[in-house]
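User: I'll paste a sequence; please echo it back and then give the predicted structure.

Assistant: Echoing your sequence first, then the prediction.
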Amino acid sequence: MATRGAGRAGGGSNNSTAAWVERVDRLVDGSGRYSSALKSAFIHFQTLCPGPAIPQTLLLPALQYFLQKIVDELDSKAGKLCLRPISEEDLERVAQSDPSLDMQQPIDYEQFDKFARKMLKYVALDRGKRLGLFMLGGIVVVHMAKSTLGKIPFIGPPIGAVMSFLLPTAIAGPAVGVAGAMYM
């Protein structure tokens, strides 16, 4: 409770962010799907030179494989809405955002787990922003359609009133936006 209040008080936004990150980490820790995808990707790409590790050159394919394993176990629509394929640019951004992530040496299981967590959060947040924009766009589209329909002579006003009652813009707009996000 104190964390939520501190986030609103002005100077405590870092506390609320830290609390959010902690909650996401607890959710990931309790996920069997995450653990199995992480182990599968690490085993698939590891080399046994000095010990089990993933070479830096195979980090991106290993993370792509990891995310694909997670998406494979989800409903295809949910996977498309929440996650996307990652690129070298994404990996560089994630590595730059956290100095504890070192790509210069072979990546052991613990370091791979850190990379996977950061990448999963990064991609999910990126897709969340995209989904939010699509929802706003859906609201605009529904509002414009209702306005256009209301301007039709004679039948527009009664149909517009019925449509406003049956399809409130605040509900239909986000639904149209989510549908658009799934198919684009």
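The first helix runs from residue 2 to 8. Residues 31-182 form one domain.
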